[in-house]
Design goal:
- By secondary structure, the chain is an all-alpha fold.
- Helix content is about 75%, strand content about 0%.
- It contains three helices and no strands.
- The chain is elongated and about 65 Å long.
- The N and C termini lie close together (about 10 Å).
- The relative contact order is 0.19.
């Protein structure tokens, strides 16, 4: 009975870590893309020309929304750590690191301990 539980914990740990990592990677890609567009707008705006890229509405796919919502739920227990920060990078980065530590290392360690006790 303990062995299937350890396997389930290990698989769940990996899935949670994958969700959190993918969500952070999507966030980082969006932020760098947005920063690049903003920088291009500032450069072209400084020359008196019209901005090259007008602000585009955000279109998220269903998969993207599901991943973001799942990651937000998984990192919400750690939101108090970054409550005073206004930096999205700090909030997302610290939440991701803490989630990986707790769900990856913590739950993975628990799964290994259950297997050793058998």
């Amino acid at each position: 009975m303990v062995l299937p539980l350890a396997t389930l914990l290990r698989v769940a740990s990996r899935v949670v870590c994958l969700i959190v990592i993918v969500s952070f990677a999507i966030f980082a890609l969006e932020q760098t893309s947005e920063a690049s567009s903003n920088q291009q707008n500032e450069v072209t705006g400084a020359n008196g020309a019209a901005p090259a890229h007008a602000a585009k509405p955000k279109h998220e796919s269903t998969v993207h929304k599901v991943i973001d919502e799942a990651a937000k739920a998984l990192t919400s227990p750690f939101s108090g750590v970054t409550a005073g920060s206004s930096s999205q990078w700090a909030i997302r980065g610290v939440g991701t690191v803490l989630a990986l530590l707790v769900y990856g290392l913590g739950v993975g360690y628990l799964a290994r301990m259950l297997r050793i006790r058998v």
